Amino acid sequence: MKKIRMGMVGGGQGAFIGAVHRMAAFLDGEIELVCGAFSSNKERSISSGLSFYLPEARCYATYEEMFRQEAELPEDQRMEFVAIVTPNNLHFPVAKAAIERGFHVMSDKPATFNLAEALELKSILDKHDSLYGLTHTYNGYPLIKQAKHLIEKGELGNVVKIVVEYTQGWLAAKTDEDNKQASWRLDPAKSGASCCMGDIGVHAANLAEYVSGLDIVELCADLTSTVAGRVLDDDGTVLLKFSNGAKGVLLASQISPGDENDLRLRI
Questions:
Q1: What DSSP string describes 133-169?
Q2: Residues whose CB falls within 8 Å of the CB of residue 215, separated by 6 or more in sequence, listed in order
Q3: Residue 210, C-beta contacts closer than 8 angstroms, at least 6 positions apart
Q4: Would you state the pLDDT for residue 27?
Q5: What one-character DSSP code corresponds to residue 49?
Q6: Which one-letter DSSP state was computed for residue 56?
Q7: Cα distance between residue 74 and residue 48, in whole Å
Q8: Which end of the chain is least crowded, N or C, by CB within 10 Å?
Q9: How far apart are the C-alpha atoms of 108 and 103, rounded to whole Å?
Q10: What are phi and psi for residue 66, nearest 5 degrees?
Q11: Which residues fall within 8 angstroms of residue 16, CB to CB, at 6 or more apart?
């Protein structure tokens, strides 16, 4: 069976998101990791690639080098799409470079660092044939599909209330300096305008819309930084109004001790 050849930018050893993408890609046996730029450090990138059983020649120092050299390989050998699992500030430049080289893109959320980049990304995609996908992993769970199906069939009747929660506890204490994931997620230059809401709150919002089939049209948000010295939010509460008039509440927190990835949706 012919497999789809995947490259990866980011997601080196010890990177949770990269590991999740690799596991998801391999579940159906139709995708093969063939190359990657796994770290901004060349030695670490090569070390990570070798641990994934890749040849050293296809473990690249930069994503620019990877796209350039992969494009020069025979069509039946080069990667076909790239998975982007870097900090948020790199999502757009990596996607742009890949698309302009003719590769397809599967990016971790968010698509871009800000709205201006999102509009530019759309313009770039309109000029090329590359496919682009954005990951919201929880949509793939069977019970989520079943819940969406039941609502589409009308078995719940008219939707009037939606409550969605996503809580974690890993940022309850000050861990910024000694935790690589925390250090970039709490850095506005790498994460963007939000930590908690942009990291996990968007998953909750996506689930509320995906399962209900409704769009969020209005909101009122209270974002909070509870640990001294933090610039970005680590907790938030949002009131929601949906396209059919239904009301809702979204709770997202990364300072809830004892919670790991606690996700709840009530419709």
A1: EEE-GGGGSHHHHHHHHHHHTTTT-S--EEEEEEE--
A2: 209, 242, 243
A3: 136, 139, 144, 148
A4: 66
A5: H
A6: G
A7: 25
A8: N
A9: 16
A10: -65, -50
A11: 181
Q: What is the pLDDT of residue 122?
A: 98
Position of tokens 């093969």?
32
Q: Is the pLDDT of residue 140 over 90?
A: no
End-to-end C-alpha distance for the chain, whole angstroms:
42
Tokens of 26: 């391999």
From the centroid of its chain, how far is CA 68? 25
**Neighbouring residues of 58: CB distance < 8 A, sequence distance ≥ 6:** 34, 35, 36, 49
Beta-bridge mates of residue 249: 163, 239
Strand partners, 107: 84, 134
Residue 40 and residue 97: Cα distance in Å, rounded?
16
- Fill in the DSSP letter of residue 197: I
Distance CA 42, CA 61 (A): 4
Tokens of 154: 């009308």
pLDDT band at 177 (very low <50, low <70, confident <90, very high): low
Helical packing angle, 91-100 and 115-126, nearest 10°: 10
Q: Are 63 and 37 a contacting pair, CB within 8 Å? A: yes
CB of 129 closer than 8 Å to CB of 197? no
Task: Give the burial string for 39-64 (b: 16+ CB within 10 Å, else e).
Answer: beeeebbbbbbeebebeeebbbbebe
